[in-house]
Amino acid sequence: MNARNMDETVISAPHETDRLDPRGETAASAERATLRGHEAPVRIAPVKLGPVDVPAPVVLSPMAGVTNWPFRVLCEEYGPEGLYVAEMITARALVARNPKALRLCRFAPSERVRSLQLYGVNPSITEQAAKIVVDNNMADHVDLNFGCPVPKVTRRGGGSALPWKTDIFTELIQRVVRVCEPANIPVTAKIRVGIDHAHETFLEAGRIAQEEGCKAVTLHARTTAEYYGGHSDWSRIGELKAALSIPVFGNGDVWGAEDALEMIRETGCDGVAVGRGCQGRPWLFANIRNAFAGDPARVNPNLGEVCRVIERHAELLTEFYDGDERMAVHDLRKHIAWYLKGFPVGGSTRRAFMECESIDDVRREIGRLDPTVEYPPRVVDKPRGRVRFAKKVHLPYGWLDSRTTTHEERETLFGDDPMDASY
Length: 423
Ligand SMILES: Cc1cc2nc3c(=O)[nH]c(=O)nc-3n(C[C@H](O)[C@H](O)[C@H](O)COP(=O)(O)O)c2cc1C
What we know:
DusB-like, flavoprotein, tRNA processing, three-stranded antiparallel beta sheet, tRNA dihydrouridine synthase activity, binds flavin mononucleotide, RNA binding
């Protein structure tokens, strides 16, 4: 049921699907069950995004608050030559030269492809942001965020709400491509299935992205209402792949290397994008690299090895924060919780990590752990991070009434883009 108040439209759709795994009853899943454990062939091929080569079709999916360069460097060191995308940068924040946004635009010298993601609602502001990226040689690839389900973003018509308005969606891509193409910077789009199943947008959005010059599309196969709940419906990735000629990256619920193979096998997609699965497990990219190469070896480090990654992560973050160890260690806290997930580490030790203020504090706590503890089998390749459904979907007032915007709607939308760099 939809409710309206003066400012916004709210859809109450707590569970888009009752089934935890919407793939559960499909013919594909029966086939999947048969294939599991068998050597069914999977076609893994390099992907080309215009001038940018992606020899191994795997993407570190952008994650706000997670995929800054220190984490990307760790993932890329383990992984193959894929794409390791920075977290989304708010176009308006970049245009305003917001220092936090500028910090998020930094790349490490070792990064093979500088992949930056822009988020914008206003085509003109997003074009200006793209121009800044081009004029200052800030990236080799620009991804556009049309997948964010966070209420703060969708209630302004942004992220996964935007493809519903085909006029703004088309114009925004057109303008960014117009700026990036002459600079040889490929533009890609990241989308969801739709707002909910009554308002699906992915096939149309994919076609528009392709027509307007995007070099690939990534589909997170959930709706906004599904948020991060249940399982993404990979059959939709197959549908999109069948509808488009540009590469399609499948996204959603790749928790281990076998999931990556299975997604490609099941959907025919050109590559996979991995988000939550690598939280606290950057070595997942080593496993995917091996799986793509047909090598059965898998990395599952013991606690001592995990702690060495934590220490290195802390050092890289300190560099990211220009030597500010306190900021680095605060940023590291959520990662430590993910790194230690499933290990037999008691509550008081975990709390002590959360109270660390310096790298020495972190080292001290590491010194109290038993480095010989093996990686806990019960968390290998299992879900982690956000897993819930949206309680409600928040949209601008009257958003669903029409597929295009009125003059008044544009005035309201573009008058107050958020100035902050995060969501
Ligand atoms: C903490 C967090 C932050 C995210 N930030 C972004 C973002 O900045 N841009 C974006 O396009 N998607 C973002 N996402 C979505 C992920 O890129 C990905 O599409 C989603 O998590 C589904 O993939 P997964 O099942 O592999 O996690 C974020 C997800 C999480 C959990």
